[in-house]
Design a protein that fits this description.
- The chain is α/β, with parallel strands linked by helices.
- Among the domains are: about 1-55, DNA Methylphosphotriester Repair Domain (3-Layer(aba) Sandwich); about 70-165, Homeodomain-like (Arc Repressor Mutant, subunit A); about 175-225, no CATH class.
- Helix content is about 40%, strand content about 10%.
- The protein contains 14 helices and 10 strands.
- Strands 3-1-2-4 form a 4-stranded mixed β-sheet. Strands 7-6-5-8 form a 4-stranded mixed β-sheet, with helices on both faces.
- β1 and β2 form a beta hairpin.
- α12 packs across α13.
- The longest helix is centred in the middle third of the chain and has 18 residues, at about 115-135.
- The two termini are about 25 Å apart.
């Protein structure tokens, strides 16, 4: 990390942040400002960690801002997959592209909830599912997407989607993608009926949230493209620019009866308004159950769109937030002022 920061290596942007003790700021690795002495630096894996350590964001490299794209080396891998979707990139292939396999594994695990190998396999299977839905033959789906045999394809397909290929023509899956934002990357997911996942990639509970989606919907997570995700990306951009107050997307958020009641009430809180946990409990028909509604808030799997950030303590203090209090404060400030949260 020290070498990457001192050399201003842009390919490490988003993988770590550097706090400078002498100035009290934290930066991206690619920050163009004059580099401090190594003994005055400390390193953090997330923006949250840096801010909780007392550092403020650098104004030159703007580590809170969205860079609009993944690191260059990740973009190179995605481009390679797009050019040859059926390719199986092995460790030697990654090294030939100048990417350490362990680095790819960590980045995709952190941002997509799966290793790079699993990401590639899921993409191939997702394309195969799309071909089957479009009326394609089993032969084309199996042999045209990087599988050497029908048996290997059937086994991988059934493991991913919970059903053999022959029964999956009318099936669905949770299509996932990464959305960059001024408050950090978000993992989003959509099914045919609506958005079912929008979560900060550095949240500690993200794996449990992903497991809850697959368990509640009985569907596999598959990276790919989806029209609803395109709309979500556009509406989020407008929200962070201060141009959108309401989201138009259909939502799919199954939970317990109480959770669904709480989440429905969250959606009724107007833009720019906050209510207390006590008031939310009253509106949800459970007067005095502030702790229970707080737990339901924490189980919300569609951040921002289901605005659990609009619930605060009765005293006016922020209270808790699964994405980190620094994000909650920024979101509330955006809605209070309407000032664009962009670089």
């Amino acid at each position: 990390m020290e070498r990457a920061f001192l050399e201003g290596d842009v390919s490490f942007d988003g993988l770590f942040f550097t706090g400078v003790r002498t100035t009290g700021i934290f930066c991206r690795p690619s920050c163009p400002a004059r580099k401090p002495k190594p003994e005055n630096c400390e390193y953090f894996g997330t923006v949250k960690e840096a801010m909780f350590a007392g550092y403020r964001a650098c104004r030159r490299c703007d580590p809170l801002g969205a860079n609009g794209r993944p690191p260059e080396w990740v973009a190179k891998l995605i481009a390679q997959l797009d050019a040859n979707p059926e390719a199986r990139l092995q460790a030697a292939d990654l090294l030939a592209l100048g990417v350490e396999p362990a680095r790819a594994r960590r980045w995709f695990q952190q941002h997509h909830g799966m290793t790079f190998a699993a990401f590639c396999r899921a993409r191939r299977l997702g394309r195969a599912l799309g071909e089957l839905r479009a009326g394609g033959s089993l032969d084309d789906a199996a042999l045209g997407h990087g599988f050497d045999s029908h048996s290997g394809f059937r086994e991988a397909f059934a493991k991913q989607f919970g059903a053999p290929p022959g029964q999956a023509r009318e099936g669905d899956c949770v299509t996932t993608a990464l959305i960059e934002s001024p408050v950090g990357p978000l993992l989003c997911g959509a099914v045919g009926k609506g958005i079912c996942l929008l979560e900060f990639t550095d949240r500690r509970r993200i794996e449990k949230q992903m497991e809850a989606v697959t368990r509640r919907l009985g569907l596999a997570l598959v990276p790919g493209d989806h029209p609803l995700l395109d709309t979500l990306r556009r509406e989020l951009a407008e929200y962070f620019e201060g141009k959108r107050r309401e989201f138009t997307l259909p939502l799919v958020a199954p939970g317990t009866e109480f959770q669904e009641r709480v989440w429905a009430e969250l959606c009724r809180i107007p833009y720019g308004i906050t209510i207390s946990y006590e008031e939310l409990a009253n509106r949800s028909g459970r007067a005095g159950a502030q702790r229970a509604v707080g737990t339901a808030n924490g189980m919300n799997r569609i951040a921002i769109v289901i605005p659990c950030h609009r619930v605060v303590n009765k005293s006016g203090e922020l209270g808790g937030y699964g994405g980190g209090l620094w994000r909650k404060q920024l979101l509330l400030e955006l809605e209070r002022t309407g000032k664009p949260m962009v670089r």
